[in-house]
Amino acid sequence: MISLFKNWYLRHFSTPGTIEFALVLLCIFLIVYYFMWLVGPLVVALCIAYCLDGVVRFLTRKCYMSRTVASSVTMLFFIGLSVSILVFVVPKLLQQGSQFYQTLQSISAQNISTEKGEDFDSIVTSNILPFVENLPDPLPSMMTEGEIKELVNKARLALISNVSNIFNNQIMPSVVNVMSFLVYLVIVPIFTFLMLSNKSQLQSRFVTYILPSNQRIIHEFWPQLTKQIEGYMRGKLIHITIVSIVNTVAFMLFGLHYAILLGIGVGLSVVIPYVGAVIITIPILLVSVFQFGFGYTLVWLLAVYIIIQLLDSNVLTPMLFSKAMNLDAFSILASILIFGGLWGFWGVFFSIPLATFIRTIIVNWPSSSPVPLVQEEKK
């Protein structure tokens, strides 16, 4: 056992500088975990700077601007876009979110009706009953129409209760906490501008005073890490924007209630593959069924929604992300479980970027010798 651990240690930490680099990563994780309330503006500003740095580099190369001027132009554009979103989109989003939250809270154990005045549980029961009657004997005689309706009622109440609890205990407190830190509106743009304009100086200080003294590991490992993270964050931002706009427009064309809220929710769900799509589909189904009932409008709405999801997964995602950036299903679900347990809602929201960060570290970590098992699998 000791020799096994020794061989593992020599294989992964014999390169000069790897131990110091591992300690730096561990310290950064502990600081973010325990002092997020203190370093939160820096983390948010760093994420925004990663997304905007490509625009700054483009302006410096194509328009021959200095780094400071390019950063100023980029920040002015970013602030103008952010103010436009705050003025035209956020109030409507908050209004629909408040209405949807109050609707969930107001639903009691009493039965409800669709917008057309039809009894919801009776409609679902009438659609399930023919299927049960065609089952082989003695299954049809074991379930009456009243029992089916009672099961539908219990399932509906449990589903609404769970969705309401998610909004009440996870999403709404997180949004309120974020909105309470209005100081972010001033501090984050300043930090972002300083990070963009003084990028070279800040990186030089980081390399000199924080990262290991072995410059070889920095020049070979760190650029790959930052490049992949920057590409992922920029691509994911474009991904969220396109999906949000397309779904919002589609829902508005159908006249669906809470169209902006649900459309942006679908866009944000792409941050959490698999799980996000399932979670956001539940409120979409609830709102659609309560508003339209079981009719052709519901069928067409779901068909358009499924087509958009297929185009997203088979066309848009491959265009924005290379295969190297994709994670397997096990890694995605494991990251959602682990980071969700550590940081709650925001841990789930940022689970894939964090998993990508860890994957990049593992793949590019310096090793003194190849692992035999990997060679055997490749053969």
From TrEMBL:
Its main location: membrane. Keywords: Cell membrane, Membrane, Transmembrane, Transmembrane helix, Transport. It comes from the Bacteria. It is a multi-pass membrane protein. It holds the Pfam family AI-2E_transport. The chain crosses the membrane at residues 12-36, 42-60, 72-94, 175-196, 237-260, 266-287, 294-311, 331-358. It is found in: Cell membrane. Belongs to the autoinducer-2 exporter (AI-2E) (TC 2.A.86) family. This is AI-2E family transporter. It comes from Succinivibrio faecicola. The lineage of its organism: Bacteria, Pseudomonadati, Pseudomonadota, Gammaproteobacteria, Aeromonadales.
